[in-house]
């Protein structure tokens, strides 16, 4: 396109207005994004409607006692999921403590020039490959590798420190600790990837300014980089916690499927997801309703965790931006 100039001011624009085809394509793409967004919302509402509809008779019959009860006996028609709620939260918190520490540590290790770019890429891909391993493989690995490896140490701790509630039972097989250890590895890729993105987004000039003030590498990491990326790291922990709450197959194989409430890391337990997986194949009509009730409780716990995490992240973001009152 020819451009004529009068002095230094162009009289013709290089950019041309969008054609009718461009406008149509833009409107089509915008409409499709709206459609898929609303379809996602409707799908979640439909799933909630179906589960709530099938759980309604059990909710009406058992009420709050189903949440606070500790007995699950289909033959006598007694159902309670408090031990499963306890096991779900306990295993997820333990996994978050272990996986969160190592996930954030890996993110720091892979973003702060501790490795050459080639080695950094290799380690990053290895961590991300952990997410591709099937849940049942993690469960088998936990049964045949993790439990035999930690059993001697766990039993020694029980013999010498059994007066502490966390070690009051021995580890005879599946239990809370091996389940939490395997679960922590399963949430590790999520926490590491999101934390790595959050730390990488910190402006490099902030670190240079810290170095200019005489800070060492670790002083810059702990005093500048981590606080600046704290909101993103917390988001990674929330995502990892949500992932841990819904894990099914590995926990069904490793947690022990025992209907009890215990602080001991070595005692067997149960989770809501494992309860659903183990009982649905042989569930009768009555038991199907109470299992749907349990599924509704699991969805509510996950929703509350995400809402709480979002609220905390928004508050932290406002504080960092100076908008908090």
From TrEMBL:
Keywords: Cell membrane, Membrane, Phosphate transport, Transmembrane, Transmembrane helix, Transport. The keyword Transmembrane helix applies. It is found in: Cell membrane. One of its GO terms (biological process) is phosphate ion transport. GO terms for molecular function: phosphate transmembrane transporter activity. It is a multi-pass membrane protein. SUPFAM superfamilies: MetI-like (SSF161098). The keyword Cell membrane applies. The chain crosses the membrane at residues 31-49, 89-110, 122-147, 220-241, 261-278, 290-313. Residues 85-309 form the ABC transmembrane type-1 domain. InterPro entries: MetI-like, MetI-like_sf, Phosphate_PstC, Phosphate_Transport_Permease. Part of the binding-protein-dependent transport system for phosphate; probably responsible for the translocation of the substrate across the membrane. This is Phosphate transport system permease protein.
């Amino acid at each position: 396109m020819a451009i004529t100039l009068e002095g230094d001011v162009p009289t013709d624009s290089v950019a041309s207005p969008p054609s009718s085809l461009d406008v149509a394509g833009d409107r089509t793409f915008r409409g499709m994004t709206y459609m898929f967004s609303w379809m996602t919302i409707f799908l979640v509402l439909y799933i909630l409607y179906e589960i709530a509809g099938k759980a309604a008779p059990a909710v009406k019959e058992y009420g709050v006692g189903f949440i606070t009860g500790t007995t699950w006996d289909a033959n006598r028609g007694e159902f309670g999921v408090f031990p499963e709620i306890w096991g779900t939260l306990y295993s997820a918190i333990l996994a978050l403590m272990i996986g969160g520490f190592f996930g954030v540590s890996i993110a720091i290790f892979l973003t702060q020039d501790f490795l050459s770019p080639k080695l950094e890429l290799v380690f990053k891909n290895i961590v991300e490959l952990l997410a591709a391993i099937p849940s049942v493989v993690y469960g088998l690995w936990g049964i045949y590798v993790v439990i035999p490896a930690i059993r001697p140490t766990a039993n020694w701790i029980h013999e010498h420190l059994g007066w502490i509630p966390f070690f009051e039972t021995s580890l005879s097989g599946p239990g809370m600790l091996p389940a939490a250890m395997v679960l922590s590895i399963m949430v590790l890729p999520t926490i590491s990837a999101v934390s790595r993105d959050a730390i990488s987004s910190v402006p490099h000039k902030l670190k240079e300014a810290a170095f200019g003030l005489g800070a060492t590498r670790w002083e810059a990491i702990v005093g500048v980089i981590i606080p600046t990326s704290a909101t993103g790291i917390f988001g990674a922990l929330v995502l990892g916690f949500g992932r841990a709450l819904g894990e099914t197959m590995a926990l069904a194989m490793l947690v022990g499927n025992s209907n009890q409430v215990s602080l001991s890391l070595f005692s067997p337990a149960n989770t809501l997801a494992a309860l659903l997986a183990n009982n649905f194949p042989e569930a009768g009509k009555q038991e199907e309703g109470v299992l749907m009730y349990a599924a509704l409780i699991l969805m509510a716990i996950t929703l509350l965790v995400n809402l709480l995490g979002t609220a905390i992240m928004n508050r932290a973001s406002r504080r960092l931006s100076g908008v908090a009152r």
